[in-house]
Amino acid sequence: MSRIAYVNGRYVPHRDASVHVEDRGYQFADGVYEVCEVRAGRLIDARLHLDRLDRSLRELRIAPAMSRAALLTVLRETVRRNRVRDGLVYMQVTRGAARRDHAFPAAQTAPALVVTARAADPAQGARLAESGIAVITVPDTRWARVDIKSVSLLPNVLAKQQAKEAGAREAWFVDAAGNVTEGASTNAWIVTSAGALVTRPADSGILRGITRTVLMAVAASEGLRVEERAFSRAEALEAREAFISSASGIVLPVVRIDGQAVGDGKVGPVARRLRTRFHDFAEAGS
Ligand code: PLP
């Protein structure tokens, strides 16, 4: 079956899906995006993802491309046309196409909207969750507003490639103080020897992950204490468990950091439990 993309008002074959050469997303990374899980044909936590999209747009003074109800319709239709049961839906809004000039284009310039959907095999995620993953650490060289889900992802791209070349699945950014901020496309967590969950506060130094937010509720229901505070690479290496969270991977246990085993080097019970319970707390739309 051929894939279909939504591009500025039209559903088009994926191979023909293209934006203007002067789209500001293409030329300046002047845009934002969201990735939402699709599970059993339903959008997971769409409300929270669209709230965050609105916030990202507001912070960058980009107008919404359409109303929330209309966008939800486009997301569902893109999922439907691609016959995605389990997978991801991606949406991107840029400041539109205009003659290249750094400052904002004329106020009437329409924002550009692109939506794609693709299937993912849940069994593959389950296998990764069983084996656990390796991460490497890299210096956090990103700008100071990574709380905005901007398409400007060059440091993340380079970090992910470095991880891949090192045989790892994710890269954890480490700030100048030696503290882990987050992964290249995930939030970072550890479980201390006392059993507390630790993750960095969602200030401007990380993206406030939707999965992270929902996991706070899962943790509370499991009677787990969550400490939102900075943790160092050294503390992570001493931790009982570590894991990453994202809409695409939910919870994936981290069993090696820079080649060193975390805890006993095996997947731990806390990460396993949080992963199992996540969808009891996430919102499944229609
Ligand atoms: N941090 C970064 C840098 C990300 O790119 C992502 C997801 O893309 C996350 C964290 C996790 O966010 P969410 O749980 O909303 O997928």
From TrEMBL:
Which GO molecular function annotations are given, in alphabetical order? branched-chain-amino-acid transaminase activity
Q: What is this protein for, i.e. what is its function?
A: Acts on leucine, isoleucine and valine.
EC class (word): transferase
Family, according to the entry, reads as follows: Belongs to the class-IV pyridoxal-phosphate-dependent aminotransferase family.
What protein is this chain from?
Probable branched-chain-amino-acid aminotransferase
Q: Which GO terms describe its biological process?
A: amino acid biosynthetic process; branched-chain amino acid biosynthetic process
Cross-referenced InterPro entries: Aminotrans_IV, Aminotransferase-like, BCAT-like_C, BCAT-like_N, Class-IV_PLP-Dep_Aminotrnsfr
The record, for Pfam families, names:
Aminotran_4 (PF01063)
Q: Which PANTHER family match?
A: AMINO-ACID AMINOTRANSFERASE, AMINODEOXYCHORISMATE LYASE
